[in-house]
Design brief:
flat, alpha+beta, 16% strand
């Protein structure tokens, strides 16, 4: 087998080596679009191992398998070189693009990731000198955008930010993605604090580059322009729950940044959570109320070029707030009632008189002696007469309803944990029963008016409560 491999290597090694080198190079250049190198490397590694094992197990097929093995091996070798040279900072662009400027230019010419970064940098340098004069009157930009947005045409030779943004939207809708990206990047070079261009651009980027590619572009933007607007836009590209925590930290550092509260409310919304817990609804309502208060105090429109989008945010937040406020169970999700009942029981007794022959079946119990009657179990044989005795035991039944899906309910009564007798889980609520033995006198006011404490685990595994409830009959 060794001789066959060497002979085939001499004949085809150069060809397969060239194929492997070309494949690895092309895959590395296309890295911004898709991680081809890693997929090719792992795939050919597996096939090379399988083909090598087959050479030992199927000797009759060695002459046919060896060329395939060599081809797979060379592709694995060269793709592996590129894969291992791609560090964490270079994986998005590829090893060659990071090391050879010509390759980076090639990526830019075909509209890959690096084009956005270089375009932003170049445009920033060109416009930076005039930016300060233009952004002094943001309301003029909003007004001008509303006027030019009424037309559907491209503005030739744009110079103002609203003109670049208008062109970007028109070019995006018409499918001219390369020029749309250039127009967006020209707009961002003005360093304005409007968020809607970022939101629209991110939607565009995620389709074109994927979420990871969009994050890299915004990481570059943020490193060169660490304003709250850019930081906020960058946060939106992360996944929950990291995004949620980053938003909370951002709000703590920027308490007057109004859009962040609206975005935080969405983190707990039904759209993102699917099935909301009551804790989610409380968090959503809290963020919406803070958003509503701040939009009146600080103002929301100053964050939007397109005032229509701001109006949609306000309208939606008002509808959601009203809907959530109608849920009275947000503050007290637990209710309980108590009812008093008695259970009837039966005891059996067998006549077993004292001081008589135990085998005398005709002996009777006169009641002269207290122990003449012996309690027996049902079905137990008695050779003399029997009698039944009816008696009652009294109980309190505590019925608790939790207005969400839950598990592991706990009831505390006078600091003692009560046993859960029955548990019933519904679509949006949980009901369970616990019983408490009443006093011997059977008074109906033993538990009524008492306070119980109820805790539970919600559908996300978070502990809720304890909630204190006064029992009402």
């Amino acid at each position: 087998m060794k001789t066959l491999i060497i002979d085939n290597f001499k004949k085809t090694g150069s060809l397969f080596g060239i194929i492997g080198l070309i494949g690895g190079t092309v895959s590395d250049i296309l890295q911004p679009l898709f991680p081809f190198v890693s997929y090719i490397f792992f795939f050919t590694s597996i096939t090379s191992i399988l083909l090598f094992l087959t050479l030992f197990l199927a000797k009759s097929l060695q002459t046919k398998i060896i060329p395939a093995f060599l081809c797979s091996f060379f592709i694995m070798f060269f793709s592996g070189i590129f894969y291992f040279f791609q560090g964490e900072q270079k994986q998005e662009k590829g090893f060659l693009a990071e090391t050879i400027p010509l390759i980076s230019s090639l990526q830019s010419s075909i509209g890959l990731l690096q084009d956005d970064i270089s375009q932003i940098k170049k445009t920033t340098e060109n416009i930076e000198e005039t930016t300060e004069q233009i952004v002094t009157k943001l309301d003029e930009i909003q007004k001008e955008f509303s006027e030019i947005n009424k037309s559907n045409g491209i503005i030739d030779n744009p110079t103002r930010p609203e003109q670049f943004y208008h062109n970007a939207r028109i070019q995006e809708l018409s499918g001219d993605y390369i020029n749309a990206r250039k127009s967006y990047n020209s707009y961002f070079a003005f360093k304005l604090d409007f968020i809607d261009p970022h939101l629209r651009y991110q939607t565009f980027l995620k389709i074109q580059e994927g979420r990871a590619g969009a994050r890299e572009i915004y990481s570059y933007l943020y490193n060169n322009d660490p304003r709250p607007t850019v930081e906020y836009a960058r946060i939106l590209l992360f996944d929950a729950p990291l995004r949620t925590n980053m938003l909370k930290d951002f709000i703590e550092s920027n308490p007057d940044f109004v859009p962040a509260y609206y975005e935080l409310s969405r983190e707990f919304s039904e759209d993102r959570k699917g099935l909301q817990t009551l804790s989610d609804k409380r968090s959503e309502l809290k963020a919406l109320q803070e958003f509503s208060a701040l939009k009146d105090q600080v103002g929301l429109l100053k964050y939007f070029v397109d005032k229509e989008l701001a109006a949609k945010w306000i309208e939606k937040s008002e509808i959601l707030t009203l809907k959530l406020k109608q849920n009275s169970n947000l503050l007290m999700p637990v209710s309980a009632t108590v009812s008093y009942y008695s259970k009837q029981h039966k005891r059996l007794f067998c006549c077993n008189p004292m001081y008589v022959d135990q085998e005398d079946s005709n002996a009777t119990c006169t009641g002269r002696y207290k122990n003449d009657w012996e309690q027996i179990s049902e079905g137990q044989i008695c050779i003399r007469e029997t009698k039944e005795e009816i008696y009652f035991t009294n109980f309190w039944e505590i019925s608790v309803q939790i207005d969400e899906q839950s598990s592991d309910p706990v009831i505390l009564l006078e600091s003692e944990i009560q046993k859960i007798e029955r548990l019933k889980e519904l679509n949006n609520s949980t009901e369970f029963i616990s019983t408490v033995r009443a006093g011997k006198d059977g008074k109906a006011n033993d538990l009524e008016g008492s306070i119980i404490s109820v805790g539970y685990t919600d559908s996300r595994g978070n502990k809720q409560g304890p909630y204190e409830i006064i029992l009402i009959n």
